Amino acid sequence: MQRLQGLDALRCLLVIISVLRGIYIILGVYFSLVCVSLSVIVQVRMVRRKFFSLSRLTEMGCCSCLGFLSKSRRQLRTISGASSQYSQEFLLPDDADVDGDLYNGDSFFMPYESNGELQQRKKGSEEILLHRIQSGMICREIPVKETRHVIRTEDENGNKMVNEYVRECKIGSGSYAKVVLYRSTVDGNRYAIKAFHKSHLLRLRVAPSETAMTDVLREVLIMKMLDHPNIVNLIEVIDDPNTDHFYMVLEYVEGKWVCEGSGPPGGLREDIARRFLRDIVSGLMYLHSHNIVHGDIKPDNLLVTSSGMVKIGDFSVSQVFEDDNDELRRSPGTPVFTAPECCLGLTYGGRAADTWALGVTLFCMVLGEYPFLGDTLQDTYDKIVNDPLPIPRDINPHLKHLLEALLCKDPKQRIVLEDVAVHPWVVADEGSIPQFLCRCKRMNLKSVESADNKTSADVRH
């Protein structure tokens, strides 16, 4: 009897196990179907994104430069209404001194929100700059040289060469590129060359919808437009579609950066700091008048020539706007030079943020230290937002007033560059900073004068 009961219990257990196994199999099939469905949805969305990106880049003439299109179809297309010397191809960077494999051209642009809806598209810097080229609003009289091939060799002494340039030494590096000093075998001059890898730039995410390639593309386009004595000049861009390398050939500024030699004992003399500041303000006013925000004003990006002139460099995080609306969300600058409104994670005005960074730079020049510096990044941001400005009591009153105006925590109350140019400490015995009349401004004035003359002639008749 007990044996029969045991067999019944075993049969029941086997039935239960069979039922559970069936449920397990059904659940497995169900989840497999769910995974397959999700995979299909993701693939479809990726195809949609990729198609959008490639079609947009094709319209803009970028693809052949990036290696997305077959080499045989790569053509140089001139821009209607602009000088034939300007190319519609947007040259894009590459990185160091090491050979790399060609990247596969996968797109990283994301025109869709996280919920799958198409974003409302805004004009990017590239389109704004292209429109300026088509309209003839270019400051440069001599266009940037564009080279489509790279020959990497060595000279008779074993020094590495890139085309006509012989390597001398490395002079700097950043998150995107190395900066190397080269000498030209053609004119004998020295040049600072930024060397990039395109594949690295495409992999490096800097914002939800941007890679480092976007930043470098924008930097090249901006520098191809600019011509000002206080801005580093771009000489040549070298982009070979058959390699992963890209080079920006820049004028070499042999002097020191503006704060080198200053330190806690006292910083620079006021007259030297004033001369430097006047140059920086002149260059920055020029940028802002062309709706360009630098985004990373700091001593490291301000180079002093052997004659004592300051030149603004590094436009890797700069932004371009269509008009006076300079609202930004991304704050990619250096933390200790970041404006209070940028620390709060809100939208902010790019021009006002540049002005704050100018104030921190002046503070560093005259006092040899940062105004707000914490033990951690968050501590630094807290000090920038909340702490009062630590100015010594015995400082020049005019200088004190200027520092307080530049480093005003309320961006709406912060001094503007036009008022800095006529500030008593800045003017001193040298007068106010003159407005630079660039080529495109001169062309505008001529157009206005021609229109006025035509109107006057029509009225007389």
UniProtKB/TrEMBL annotation:
GO biological process: intracellular signal transduction; response to virus
Reactions catalysed, as given in the entry: L-seryl-[protein] + ATP = O-phospho-L-seryl-[protein] + ADP + H(+); L-threonyl-[protein] + ATP = O-phospho-L-threonyl-[protein] + ADP + H(+)
SUPFAM superfamilies, A to Z: Protein kinase-like (PK-like)
Domain Protein kinase stretches: 165-426
Bilayer-spanning residue ranges: 12-42
Superkingdom to which the source organism belongs: Eukaryota
PANTHER family: MAP/MICROTUBULE AFFINITY-REGULATING KINASE (PTHR24346), SERINE_THREONINE-PROTEIN KINASE GRIK1-RELATED (PTHR24346:SF39)
Stated family: Belongs to the protein kinase superfamily.
Subunit structure: Associates with the SNF1-related protein kinase (SnRK) complex. Interacts with AL1, a geminivirus (TGMV) protein essential for viral replication.
Protein name in UniProt: non-specific serine/threonine protein kinase
